[in-house]
Design goal:
The chain is mainly alpha-helical. It has helices at 11-33, 36-39, 47-52, 57-60, 63-83. It starts with 10 loop residues before the first helix and ends with a helix. The mean pLDDT is 79.
C-alpha cells in the first residue's frame, strides 16, 4: 500500500533547522574549549583575538542560530496544523 504523499513538502526548512542545530553544537564546543571567543577576554595578537573579531562570528556564536531554529520550528508546527 502506497502511503499518501505530502504535496506540501517542507524538507528544505528541516535542512535549515539541522544546519542551525549544528551551529549551536559548534557554539557549545567553542564555549567549552575556547571560552574567550564568547566572552571577549582575549589577548591582542592571539588566534582567539582574530577569531573573536572575525566576520564568521555567526558560525561559532549560536544565539542567532537558536532564534532561527525556534522560528523555523514554530513555522513548521503551525504549518502542519493548518494543512491537516
Amino acid at each position: 500500500m502506497k502511503l499518501m504523499e505530502n504535496k506540501y513538502n517542507l524538507s528544505y526548512i528541516d535542512s535549515l533547522r539541522g544546519i542551525a542545530a549544528i551551529i549551536v553544537i559548534m557554539s557549545h564546543s567553542f564555549l567549552y574549549f575556547i571560552p574567550s571567543v564568547h566572552t571577549g577576554n582575549v589577548i591582542k595578537g592571539t588566534f582567539e583575538y582574530y577569531l573573536y573579531n572575525s566576520s564568521f562570528a555567526f558560525f561559532y556564536k549560536g544565539s542567532s542560530s537558536v532564534y532561527l531554529f525556534f522560528i523555523l520550528s514554530g513555522f513548521v508546527l503551525s504549518y502542519s496544523c493548518l494543512i491537516k
